[in-house]
Amino acid sequence: MLGLEPDVFSAILLFVTSCMSMPAYISQLYTILKTKSSAGVSLASWSIWTFEYILWILYSFIYTKDIYFVAVSMIEFSLCFFICSLIIKYKPENKKSIK
User: Fold this and answer.
1) Half-sphere exposure (CA, 13 Å, Cβ side) for 47?
2) What is the per-residue pLDDT for 96?
3) Strands, DSSP E only, in 2-95?
4) Is 52 exposed, middle or buried (0-12, 13-18, 19+ CB in 10 A)?
5) How many C-beta atoms lie closer than 10 Å to residue 66's C-beta?
6) Rounded mean pLDDT, 56-79
7) 6-98: which CATH topology?
8) Rounded (10°) angle between helices 67-89 and 43-59
């Protein structure tokens, strides 16, 4: 495809998609940490994405054995898991019960 070997094309595609998704995670992390609030952030959605990356890690480790794919999946899982943790920590109901 595009005159590239399949492995090269896959690596480029994985790199591009990873670069496109990282700003979304960083933006969400920054907003939650800055405001100390997770109001309006869906724990259900982020939990599903976290579980999705567990499956991607298994797939990339078992089937593709591509260390870059495994690493990217683990990084994205870690970010999703961290966001889920922050959503729980900074839930508006938790703030009320602390005061």
Assistant:
1) 5
2) 56
3) none
4) middle
5) 16
6) 88
7) Monooxygenase (1.20.1280)
8) 160
